[in-house]
Amino acid sequence: MNWRPFRSVSCLPTVVTWDQLQRPTTLSYIKLYRRRINRSSQKPRFTVEHGFPHQPSALAFDPRLQLMAIGTKSGAIKIYGAPGVEFTGLHKDTTAVTQMHFLPGQGRLLSLLDDNTIHLWELVAGPPRELGGVKKEGVVSLNEVGSYSLPGRPGIESCSATRVTVLLLLKSCDLLCIGTEGGGVYFLELPRLLLKDNLTLPDDYRCGKSLGPVESLQEHPQQSGKILIGYSRGLVVLWDLNARHADQLFLGKQQLESLVWERSGSLFVSSHNDGGYSVWSVTSGNACNPQPVSSTIPYGPFPCKAINKILWRTTQAGSPVLLYSGGMPRASYGDRHCLTIQQDKDHVTLDFTSRVIDFFTVHSFDDPSALVVLLEEELVVIDLQTPGWPSLPTPYLAPLHSSAITCSCHISSVPPKLWERLVNAGRAQQGRQHTWPICGGKNLAPPPKQQELLLTGHEDGTVRFWDASGVALTPLYKLSTANVFHTDCDPCDDPQDPGNDPDMQQEEEWPPFRKVGCFDPYSDDPRLGIQKISLCKYSNKLLVAGTAGQVIVLGLNDERSDHSVDVSVVDLLQDREGFTWKGHDRLEPRLKPAPFPPGFQPQVLVQCLPPASVTAVALHAEWNLIAFGTSHGFGLDSFIKIQASDADGPLSRVKSLKKSLRQSFRRIRKSRVSGKKRTITTPTSKVQEANAALAEQEEVAPVQRRIEPRSADDSLSGVVRCLCFADTFLRDGTHHGPTLWAGTNSGSVYAYALEVPGVGSGRACERGGASESSTCVEAVLGKEIQLMHRAPVVSISVLDGRGKPLPDPYEASQDLAIAPDMTNAHSVLIASEEQLKVFSLPKVSAKTKFKLTAHEGCRVRKVALVVFSSAVQEDYSEHTLVCLTNLGDMHLFNIPGLRPQVRYDCIRKEDISGIASCVFTKNGQGENNMFNVLMKKKKQKKLESPCCFTLSLIFFTYKYLHQTVWHKCLDLVLLQQSCVSNLLWNEKQKHSSDFCCSVSVFKAELFKPASGAKNSFSAAACLLSSAGFYLISPSEYERFSLSAKVLTEPLCSVQLDRPLEFTLAR
Question: 597 pLDDT band (50/70/90 cuts)?
Fold first, then answer.
């Protein structure tokens, strides 16, 4: 095997002595050039999936271990316990899981697939972990240990006759009963999965398909070895497994759906296809029972749908609880998805918005405490101990897609005060706190070092806040923007419970429906949809923008408030004649005071005209400014009222938008409608003409693809793609001040110099302070950049004199981040769909670029500047540009040099929605000490072995007399490629036991200093990593990371009844 960790070949520096390292005048640091790493075959590590499993198909529960399992149509199995306890298994074939059964207390799970195979899974513990010198228990994982397929009988119909329809696990957990479509019942020995021929039904009792398939198998609750066998056409047989004969027959007249025993074993209940259920008495003297004790059609007498499953649970109070799904009248409510709870006179029909997959009860001695219902789109838990049977909030498995997700935003390192206020606001919404009934397992993951928020905007106008700090994505708080407007449904009022409203009871006397669950795929008004979200975590300001051009600024308040929202209208098409808006109308705002619950409350509403969907927003809370853009232009607004001294009175937000802010977009719109190419007359036009002439003369390299320029007449050329606030140099290289940057779909970038009251700038200070006319926010067009190929601008970022991104608002002023370098020249990084380019400021001359489309043949979809932190040196970090392309691969570039570092295949290119919804976190999540190279520097440059090696980004340390002195952090070690390859291969042969190879990392023996050396030159490395989310289905976010140490992944254990061998998890 030929290992080639580096593409380029570069020699190591010559001998460096300790004296030289101590003299900063001679050698302050060693500069080593960064080269691209050939890691295209590696992938980011997928750690955990957040949200609700996509297309669930089966459900199981272990009452001893308090674990719940969910199977999906794609063949995945997910086991859940207490929050943070999760196990995932995946079958080899992507076949739907139809049934699952736990072996209680053993940590074993049986799964039946749609291809008629039975699989056995086990929870296996890994080796003990050692953390800080203390041994910890091993992490448990889910592994498949065996499978079985029922052999077919001779004949044409052998496949259908032996198709498994139902499974029953006996209480002894050593036998599995298998009912088939041909009416046969077979038995498997567990856990070896061996067929027991001596227990199969005798030939005298085999009736082929005359009685229909076996629909249900239930073991007698008091007498082991006796089971009920229910056939589809209505016959129920009480079978004695030991004597191998039928004790009693029960003749039903309707098609059978399910069976359930009463706890004493003297009664059982059968549900049928006609929407009714029957109660049967089990007596020893009667061999054939043709009539049930009672038969009821609860929602008759008109034809009803089948009762698919029924449960009978006795209680200590005496009255049993009856639970069943289905049974609705076909004509009136045949399209409803319902589950009924009955106890004495209490009768509630739970009305869901998606199909019921399965359900079970959590009970002790048959006294139910909770009902768990698995639906096609969510999980609902009902508290059966509280009067009224309320639903419980879920700490995990909450449906992210309760309303369709339209946008998302990730906030890392949330301040504790903001976190506490959000949690309190969420608790006020939920009301009474309840205990989660599924509490099995133990979460071994350490508490998160920082709190992370995931914000999702939805089609119904809500913004949901999620705790993304750990494995379980927990809902924290829900914000609704619909109460700002007049709509058909007022979300300020919680949905009324028909069971508590007498008027509703009179209107809907039967069935007694109650809406349960939060999944609602329908939106009352699509104009409410949230398109953009921006949150300032230091000022507690939230900016949301919607589909109908509404932009709302919200502030956090711990108390309920009744107030009116300040409304302003911004016409982006002023002085424009002949334009007619043919889209939807704008939302009508509420002018009277409205009640707002604790949490984020609206303060300012800005309505864009025409009411087109908002495509970009920017929030600068320190300057009290917001920027917003649509397909018709962009606007600037101050959400703090400022009194102006002119004759106009209070500042009008419309008037504060100077004409220069609209002139550039007016030119774009005119060119888009008239079809004429516009001529740009700006201070930078000469620079662009020179760049264009230079580009025409430049020959395309053989490895590059020639990209033809796009037409300027595109109807979508005026769409604003990104907005950015920055304190930088725009007018000249001496004075810096607030600026606004805007990028469009036609490759145009506009930079405006802002004069913000209260924010000092170089020119304002030069004038001796702000004048009366400067009390309004003014914007003056300063620069205009037109990219050559007119590719849409994806992102704009301003870099300081050190080449680092400017800190967020309040970070520098409150000493939360290192102040930006304002002494050296700044630069601006513009990322379009085709290339990355850095321009110097204020001259706006091109410094460097990388043609991603020309080199890789892909287009940029997502861009983020990610902070990569060191696992070895806490105060060291790097900023890296991360790009996600339309092919699903991820590219990492250093800044401001734009040198390619790593390329990963991240998302399938067919997953268009996943690529479009990907969100990068700002800070690297995982950290790992992955590179540890010791190099002895002698005159002969002798390299010895061994030492652990893993490829990653690295920095240097210097060791002297057992003391580590951190010196200047460097970029990347360049090892000679042939030397590394030979060493890797040779050391693999000599130390094969210490060699490990996997998808993400590989280890090998490399270098070791000679013994007794006083001075050694050491290089230690960390994985500087990034984490992100992307939407893999309408209901699941998948988190991935480039690291392998501090990961957001399940680390948990379970106490089982069987011994666990410490084996390496596969």
Answer: very high
Residue in the block written with tokens 């050039």: 33
Answer whether residue 199 shows pLDDT above 50.
Answer: yes
**Bridge partners of residue 1052, in order along the sequence:** 443
Q: What percent of the chain has pLDDT over 70?
A: 70
Q: Report d(CA 1015, CA 934) in Å as an integer.
A: 11
Going by C-alpha positions, the residue among 934, 945, 953, 949 that lies closest to residue 1018 is: 934
**What is the rounded CA–CA span in Å between residue 907 and residue 884?**
9
How many Cα atoms are found within 13 Å in the side-chain-facing hemisphere of 1014?
Answer: 2
Look-up of token digits 């983020």: 864
Q: Please answer whether residues 956 and 487 qualify as being in contact, where contact means their C-beta atoms are separated by less than 8 angstroms.
A: no
Residue type, 100: M
Per-residue pLDDT, 267: 93
Q: What is the pLDDT of residue 1030?
A: 72
Q: With the C-alpha atoms ordered 230, 234, 239, 245, is the resulting torsion angle positive or negative?
A: negative
Task: Lay out the sheet containing 1002-1005: strands in order across.
Answer: 948-949, 1002-1005, 996-997
Cα distance between residue 221 and residue 171, in whole Å: 9
536 forms beta bridges with 541
Mean residue pLDDT across the chain:
76
pLDDT digits (tens, 9 = 90+) for 909-930: 888 888 888 888 876 442 222 2
pTM: 0.79
The pair phi, psi for residue 1032, each rounded to 5°, is -95, -15
Sign of CA dihedral 583, 584, 585, 587: negative
The Cα 859–Cα 851 span in angstroms is 10
3-class DSSP state of 180: strand
Q: In what order do the strands lie in the sheet with 277-281?
A: 256-261, 267-272, 277-281, 294-296
The Cα–Cα gap between 22 and 819 comes to 28
**Residues 894, 1013: contact at Cβ < 8 Å?**
no
What share of residues in the chain are helix, strand, coil (percent, to 5)?
10, 40, 50
What 3 state SS string does 387-438 have?
CCCCEECCCCCCCCCCCCEEEEEEECCCCHHHHHHHHHHHHHHHCCCCCCCC
pLDDT confidence of residue 714: 57
The count of other CB atoms within 10 Å of the CB of residue 786 is 19
Nearest partner of 755 among 745, 767, 743, 744, judged by Cα: 767
Report the side by side order of strands in the sheet with 379-383. Answer: 356-364, 367-375, 379-383, 391-392
pLDDT tens track for 599-612: 999 999 999 999 99
Give the model confidence (pLDDT) of 828-875 as tens digits: 999 999 999 999 999 999 999 999 988 888 999 999 998 877 767 777
Provide the residue count of the chain.
1066
CA within 13 Å, CB half, 158: 7
Tokens of 1021: 């490395």
Instruction: Locate 446 and state its tokens.
Output: 């350490």
Running DSSP on this structure, what letter comes out for residue 258?
Answer: E
Alpha carbon distance 991, 510 (integer Å)? 76
Annotate 602-627 with b (16+ C-beta within 10 A) or e (fewer): bbbbbbbbbbbbbbbbbbbbbbbbbb
Q: DSSP state, 510?
A: S
Measured distance between the N- and C-terminal CA atoms of the chain, rounded to whole angstroms: 24
Q: What are phi and psi of 970, to 5 degrees?
A: -115, 180
In angstroms, rounded to a whole number, what is the distance separating the alpha carbons of residues 1047 and 469? 10
- The C-alpha atoms of residue 158 and residue 208 are separated, in whole angstroms, by 11
Q: How many other C-beta atoms lie within 10 A of the C-beta of residue 143?
A: 15
Give 103-149 as a DSSP string.
ETTTTEEEEEETTSEEEEEEEEE-PPEEETTEEEPPPEEEEEEEEEE
How far apart are the C-alpha atoms of 74 and 72, rounded to whole Å?
A: 5
